[in-house]
Write a structure and sequence with these properties.
alpha/beta; Rossmann fold; 2 domains; seven-stranded mixed sheet; 13 helices; disordered N terminus
Length: 408
């Protein structure tokens, strides 16, 4: 028995001698960190995807310009290589994009896309393969409901966003505010969640909910919905809409001479292409925002200047959030001292992880991997996005929408 144990011990030691150096050599040979980006390059969310990719790439460029991320286990810095897979603004394609990045591109980590439904299915793939997925644009309510263990979320609660949808009107004298509201949402899980919450917030803030209107994504004709709103005497709107649908909708409310006093929309009204396409017809529309250069967090001012340079003077209300996602990944890798997905995941899920001075301020992650941020609201006016919530009277005061026939 002693002899057998000795032989087993000898074999085990030989195996360790053979495998140990080999494993170390493989790790030492690692020359880059592959980060897979699932992004809406095409489809209804394509214009949003442009800013997503740009913000992520800026952060990668800045990290690589400093030599990369220091990985203690390897005792060296590694640059990031960003690999992009198009989800085509489609849930099935989002799952396929995640599979491609993990299985074919061998991504070490994944970063996320433009909407909650897309992120939910991509997150499901990340869970399957135990690959860490860090994303914005995923409602925390839905994120928590999914009970993920490999997904990290940096976004604002839908409830906070809904409050910011009608809160800008508080600066308007009560007798001049719109009284009847419509809530219009896509007929999908994201729209149902958004619409359900918005339908409670609007009456809670003292307004009448005159119409709840689901619509089909990609619709070419919003006339039935617009005519319903006119008949219901709707004066204010809270909308969740994709950019291409938003452009179609605004064009058609003008064609029907529908004159609401106030329109607030999430998701589809802030992209540069929205205003470029509609021009002055987009004036007075209020949108959600993820970030504002004026807040001055981190390198926000420099990032805003870069964006204007690359996009012919246009501004962004989002790119700082996407930049911050990559900042947190770099910080988590450094804190873990490793590029092992589980070790980096454990940093995010520790309940003690805080990343200071990102482009959206300090981000504190709870034990579920969630770092909530506050929403902002801005109003289009002459090509500029003017802040209306939180109130910024020294910069801008909300203007109600004049009738189409009174616009110059």
């Amino acid at each position: 028995m002693v002899r057998i144990k000795g032989e087993v011990l000898l074999i085990s030691l030989l195996a360790l001698c053979l495998l140990g150096p080999f494993g170390s050599a493989v790790e030492a040979a690692k020359k880059e960190i592959v980060v897979g980006l699932i992004n809406s390059e095409t489809g209804t969310e394509g214009s949003r995807g442009i800013e997503h990719r740009w913000g992520y790439q800026q952060a990668v460029n800045d990290i690589n310009a400093k030599g990369g991320i220091f990985v203690k286990e390897l005792n060296k810095k590694l640059p990031i290589r960003l690999v992009v897979a198009d989800d085509k603004s489609d849930m099935t394609q989002a799952a396929a994009a995640a599979e491609k990045l993990i299985k074919l591109e061998k991504a070490d980590f994944l970063i996320g896309t433009t909407t909650t439904p897309l992120n939910v299915v991509a997150g499901g793939v990340a869970e399957k393969y135990k690959r860490l997925y860090i994303t914005p644009c995923l409602w925390p309510e839905e994120f928590l409901n999914q009970k993920y263990s490999w997904v990290v979320d940096i976004f604002f609660f839908a409830g906070d966003l809904f409050k910011s949808s009608v809160a800008p009107l508080e600066v308007i004298p009560k007798e001049k505010r719109p009284k009847k509201f419509a809530v219009m949402v896509p007929d999908d899980p994201d729209g149902q969640m958004f619409g359900g919450a918005a339908s409670k917030v609007v009456p809670a803030q003292g307004y009448e909910l005159a119409l709840y209107e689901p619509y089909t994504i990609g619709s070419k004709d919003f006339s039935p919905s617009i005519l319903k709103m006119k008949r219901a005497g709707v004066e204010g709107m809270v909308i969740l809409i994709a950019p291409t649908d938003g452009i179609t909708f605004v064009r058609q409310i003008k064609e029907h001479d529908f004159n609401p006093k106030y329109v607030w929309g999430a998701r589809g009204f802030w992209p540069v292409e929205f205003y470029k396409t509609l021009g002055a017809d987009a004036d007075y529309i209020v949108m959600d925002g993820f970030w504002a250069e004026a807040f001055g967090y981190g390198i926000s001012k420099e990032l805003g200047e870069r964006f204007r340079k690359d996009f012919n003077g246009a501004t962004s209300v989002t790119v700082g959030l996407f930049y911050a996602v990559v900042q947190t990944l770099a910080a988590a890798i450094e804190e873990a001292g490793s590029i092992d997905p589980k070790k980096v995941r454990d940093v995010y899920y520790s309940g003690k992880f805080t990343v200071k001075n990102t482009t959206v301020g300090d981000l504190k992650f709870n034990e579920r991997g969630l770092a909530p941020i506050p929403p902002v609201a801005l109003q289009w006016y002459k090509g500029e996005r003017m802040p209306v919530y939180p109130p910024s009277p020294k910069i801008w005061t909300l203007k109600l929408i004049p009738p189409w026939k009174e616009r110059k």
